[in-house]
Design brief:
The relative contact order is 0.08. A 6-stranded mixed β-sheet has the order 8-11-12-6-13-14, sandwiched between helices. It contains 19 helices and 14 strands. Helices cover 63% and strands 13% of the residues. It is of the alpha/beta class and 601 residues long.
Length: 601
């Protein structure tokens, strides 16, 4: 890669880091954020000033030792006491305010990205895209993996690295500016003869420090380059391993019933093998870099003494000056070696920034996504659902339905049926306005509820699971009790305040009844049920369907169901049947509207 391309890549990375960093310092918390940052900068400058004082103290103290000046010795010890005390105060508050800034920044970024991730169904669409447009190994792609890890871990790493590295760089620059003049004045000139001509290099120690660190920085970059993609991949495989363990925990009963422990162990071993394999590659790269950086650092300890020793032994400088030169050289060398010393952390920061940038781009793309379905929900409770010119596609682009126009009248109960895999649930998702691969116009009344195949119940008190997504405080205990009784869950009536993982605690049938209890509690006009009774016995199914029908009749709405059981058809007066189309047709299926019991054409 040429220098021009490297510079362009660096500029692109700097823009990425700036795009992730600036929103917080321009947000509603900008006054606190900028105030903390300014305080940390001032404390860093004060810390450097303390180092300058300590450097000057070195000369006076060691000269006093060499000259056996006891009064100066004790005076300088007293001076060191207050310098050290001031430095400790500065260091403590610099640490405290730095951590406070990182915490506030992380809290704001977490709230910011959580809000954006949950907006416009972005979290759902990103999960769909993850399997059709996966992210590449270096962050290039459409949909990032493990958004939970990016919000929980990557934001923490980004804020920590951004503050520590930027303040470290500032400290290095200020230290360099403060000590380079001191070292220039102390080091003297270097005289040598070449081809009969005499030459003099002023500030020789400064130029040696620059040469030493430039060579070290270039070698560090070439040795440590593999760390960036390896750090990116390590974060990815760690998140994949953790995600699979969470899935084992969530589906523990199913896995136990299927006796799938061996398979799960094999899959976990495989994912952890990727963790170990990549970590070993990362460890090897870090070992190579550590060999060089440690050797570089150890050589820097004696390097200034070697260069300045001839002047000391000739009597040109005293011990105090030699120690001051060594101290100043060390500060200059440390400042110029910032890149060498922080390369490993810079590589991790670069990988984290790349992951967050791809996450930000994916969220922005989903939020800016102009849905092809003109989906609207009436603000009032009047009206009925209507679907016009609806085309539904699969993520791969295959057309399932084309140009369908459908309507539901108040008082109707419609059964949506068709072969397995024909897209019945996908049609429901299109009606709900969450399926991104659809075109057309959908209108739903405000008082509409969907019962998904797999209902979601948040962990916590049962009353929260029943009222979700509304707060349970909106409903009285009497209303909650009545909904549970009507949904044939009398055993749960006295457990409203019991906290548990209800998605795992309850059986499949109990979960379906609790989802129906949620509908009976909220009293919507229009109910869309996707296999809402598949785990119920015939008697419970008949009782609950009858109560759902009574509900929508009482509220002036209707019911649309997906079901395969023949017994469910008796609760519906009309049917929408997905009928396969012949080869060459615009879509795989069409919707045949008929009265229940009529044979589709």
């Amino acid at each position: 890669m040429s220098l021009i391309h490297k510079f362009a890549a660096f500029r692109a990375f700097a823009r990425q880091a700036g795009a992730l960093s600036m929103p917080y310092f321009r947000s509603e918390e900008k006054s606190k954020a900028r105030g903390l940052l300014a305080a940390i900068v001032v404390l860093n400058l004060a810390a450097v000033y303390m180092l300058v004082l300590i450097n000057d103290w070195n000369r006076l103290f060691y000269d006093a030792l060499q000259n056996k000046q006891q009064d100066v010795f004790w005076t300088q010890l007293g001076r060191f006491t207050w310098i050290a005390f001031a430095y400790i105060i500065i260091a403590v508050y610099k640490f405290y305010l730095t951590q406070l800034l990182e915490l506030r920044w992380r809290a704001w970024l977490t709230g910011h990205y959580t809000t954006r991730w949950l907006a416009n169904h972005a979290f759902y669409r990103m999960e769909l895209a993850r399997f059709t447009q996966p992210e590449g190994a270096t962050g290039k792609g459409h949909s990032p993996d493990n958004p939970d890890q990016r919000i929980q871990e990557d934001l923490n790493l980004f804020t920590s690295y951004s503050v520590s590295l930027s303040m470290g760089l500032l400290n290095a620059l200020v230290t360099l500016a403060s000590f380079v003049g001191i070292l220039w004045g102390l080091s003297g000139a270097f005289d040598f003869t070449f081809n009969g001509a005499s030459y003099e290099i002023p500030g020789f120690m400064v130029w040696m420090a620059v040469l030493y660190c430039v060579v070290g920085s270039v070698l560090t970059h070439y040795i440590g380059r593999p760390l960036i993609p390896l750090n990116f991949q390590q974060q990815r495989v760690e998140a994949d391993f953790r995600h699979h363990m969470v899935r084992v925990r969530e589906y523990s009963e199913s896995i136990a019933l299927d006796k799938g422990e061996t398979v799960e162990r094999s899959q976990l071993d495989g994912r952890f093998g990727q963790v170990i394999g990549n970590y070993l590659r990362l460890l090897t790269a870090q070992k190579r870099l550590t060999w060089f950086t440690n050797g570089f650092g150890q050589a820097a300890v004696v390097f200034p003494f070697i260069v300045a020793a001839p002047r000391f032994f000739s009597g040109a400088i005293q011990l105090g000056e030699l120690m001051q030169i060594a101290s100043a050289f060390g500060r200059v060398q440390d400042s110029l070696s910032w890149f060498v010393d922080n390369y490993d952390r810079l590589a991790s920061w670069r990988a984290t920034t790349d992951r967050l940038t791809s996450f930000e781009q994916a969220i922005s793309a989903q939020i800016a996504h102009d849905p092809s379905v003109e989906w609207s929900q009436d603000a009032t409770e009047s009206g009925a659902p209507s679907i016009a010119d609806l085309t539904v596609r699969l993520p791969g682009g295959e057309v399932m339905l084309a140009g369908q126009t459908l309507a539901v009248a108040p008082g109707e109960q419609i059964l949506l049926q068709g072969p397995s895999g024909s897209g019945k649930s996908t049609l429901f998702r299109s009606l709900a306005g969450i399926w991104p691969f659809a075109q057309g116009r959908v209108r739903l009344p405000a008082s509409s509820m969907f019962i998904p195949q797999r209902p979601y119940f948040p962990n916590g008190p049962l009353r929260d699971a029943l009222a979700y997504p509304e707060p349970a405080s909106r409903y009285t205990d009497e209303a909650l009790h009545q909904a549970l009784h009507e949904a044939l869950l009398p055993d749960l009536v006295n457990r409203l305040d019991e906290a548990d993982a209800w998605s795992q605690k309850l059986s499949g049938g109990e979960q379906q009844r609790l989802a129906i209890a949620r509908v009976l509690l909220k009293q919507p006009q229009w109910v869309f049920a996707d296999e809402a009774s598949s785990a119920l016995d015939p008697l419970a199914e008949a009782t609950l369907y009858q109560r759902l029908i009574e509900l929508v009749k009482r509220t002036g709405g209707g019911l649309v169901s997906i079901a395969h059981r023949p017994s469910v058809a008796g609760f519906h007066g009309h049917s929408w049947t997905l009928v396969p189309e012949p080869a060459g047709a615009p879509a795989r299926y069409r919707v045949q509207v008929a009265a229940t019991g009529d044979k589709p054409a």
